[in-house]
Amino acid sequence: MVARETFAKVSPLTGETLGNYPLSSTDEAIRAVESARRAFQTWKMTTVESRGRLIRAAARLLEDRKSELALLVRRETGKPLADSEAEIGGAIEMGYMLAAHGRFPYGKLLPSAIPLRQTRLQRVPLGVAALIITYNAPIPNFAWKIFPALMAGNTVVVKPSPHTPGSADAFVSILHEAGIPPEVLHVVHGEAEAATGLIEGGADLVSFTGSYPTGVKVLEAAAKTLAKTVIELGGSNPLVVRSDADVENAAKTAMDSAFSNAGQRCASASRVIVHSSVLEKFLDHVQTNAAQLTVGAADEATIGTLIDSSAAVAFEAYLQTCADSGASVTRLGVISGESAATVRPALVTGLDPYSEVGHTEVFGPVMRVFGFETDDQAVEIANATEFGLTAAIWSRDIVQAERMVSRIHAGVININGPTHGAEINYPFGGVKHSGNGSRDAGVEAIDAYSDVQVVSTFFGA
User: Fold this and answer.
1) N or C: which end of the chain has fewer CB within 10 A?
2) What is d(CA 12, CA 306) in angstroms, rounded to the nearest whole number?
3) Rg of the chain, C-alpha, whole Å
């Protein structure tokens, strides 16, 4: 018998191997879809209320296991324990919110021009949902996709990132313990071959969170089967600071938006656009606040590591490209716990905001700062990227801020707030290369993970 191929998950904190996981082939992924397809025939007949009770039970178990899950996530991703715990709290709330929809209206009545015709619109499950999930916030990412997919009546096959296999297994195990049948919720581990198998296997819905190039490949593959797609991709998000802003708080918020989660957020504020009259003051606040930043593998670090050493190498190469283009690169904070995945945050000034190096997505702790003179120029710089996920505008003049909102191309915009931190009841997604119009989270997620059916009864027949 041929031994099954596996891959090792290495902790970015210590370099130790946390476990070995099966590397699923295309054929194995196809078989998982087939198994989920068989289970769908029974699962789709369960009531919405009963599915809600199971998800509520899963949320309770997540609460019970929060500490051990947070530690596992820290070991797999390198993020501070407090950040892991906060993320799991969001996942728990997502479960409770969606579970409540077992008792909420799930459709609506439609008027008709025909006498004695009663017509209803109802949500119905699609079938098998293939969920391809990235690593940067594993437990919330699982919750945002798995909970609405199950609640809508689909069976599910999850393919987590190879960077977070243990977190995926732990999350799915908890849902099984809560009563979700194993044949209804599967996990396949691996790389592109496993994802290809899920799509080629005929999944009815493909939900993907990750990079734009990979998202395009997912859409191309899904187009061949006409699977419904939920796509959430990258971002290069602007945070605009007008001349009348609270500059001190804007600087603190910009740093949190740019550097939290070690910059590994699709909603990270990697481009900060500051009015020239307050630019020097803004940079002074950044430098002052930087003294409080500690980054690395130590338990007391306020910013964790990147996901692995190759990500650290790529980040340093990007900063070298910035320097080679004539930009000033200033490293911030102090190292607290060395590891091959540790990088210091970077403040970059002097870049051309319209150049590729000035507006590309950087999955790391970088803040590129640009000056502007007029609101028109700020909007132009904000939109000077192929992405359109999130944005923030800082101003005491709310009327002018609202006018700017109407001109910035982004799916989520905050006034006097960060570029990240969407709440679980807010639909999340972007425009342009950041997504295809679908939305995760919020009650809108039920719409994304289900289909519409129109049913009429003719009482005059």
Assistant:
1) N
2) 7
3) 23
232 is catalytic: yes
**Span 108-125, pLDDT tens digits:** 999 999 999 999 999 999
**Element (DSSP H or E) covering residue 92:** helix 81-100
247-268 in b/e form (b: 16+ CB < 10 A) is beebbbbbbbbbbbbbbbbbbb
Structure tokens at 320: 């070298």
Helix (H) or strand (E) holding 405: helix 398-405
Catalytic residue among 232, 322, 380, 444: 232
pLDDT band at 103 (very low <50, low <70, confident <90, very high): confident
Give the DSSP letter of residue 4: P
Does pLDDT of 155 surpass 70? yes
* pLDDT classification of 79: cutoffs 50, 70, 90: very high
Strand partners, 123: 452
Set 266, 300, 322, 338: catalytic member: 266
Q: What is the pLDDT of residues 323-338, one digit of tens each?
A: 999 999 999 999 999 8
**Mean pLDDT across the chain, nearest whole number?**
95
Give the burial string for 3-35 (b: 16+ CB within 10 Å, else e). Answer: eeeeeebbbbbeeeebeebbbbbbebbbbbbeb
pLDDT at res. 461: 65
The alpha carbon of 379 is separated from its chain's Cα centroid by a whole number of angstroms, namely 25
In the numeric block, which tokens belong to residue 94?
A: 């997502």
Backbone angles phi, psi at 21, to 5 degrees: -125, 150
Q: How many CB atoms lie within 10 A of CB 314?
A: 14
Single out the residue of 378, 365, 237 nearest to residue 312, CA to CA: 365
322 is catalytic: no
Q: If you write DSSP's letter for every residue of 303-354 in order, what string do you get? A: B---SSHHHHHHHHHHHHHHHHTT-EEEE-SEESS--TT----EEEES--TT
Using the CB atoms, write b or e for 69-97: b if 16+ within 10 Å.
Answer: bbebbbbbbbbbeebbbebbbbbbbbbbb
CB 162 within 8 Å of CB 9: yes
Query: Residue 91: in which H helix or E strand, if any?
Result: helix 81-100
**Which residues are 206's β-sheet partners?**
130, 229
- Token pair listed for 376: 């028109």
Name the band, by pLDDT with cuts 50, 70 and 90, for residue 411. very high
Is the CB of residue 131 less than 8 Å from the CB of residue 207? yes
Torsion of CA 268, 318, 343, 210, to 10 degrees: 40
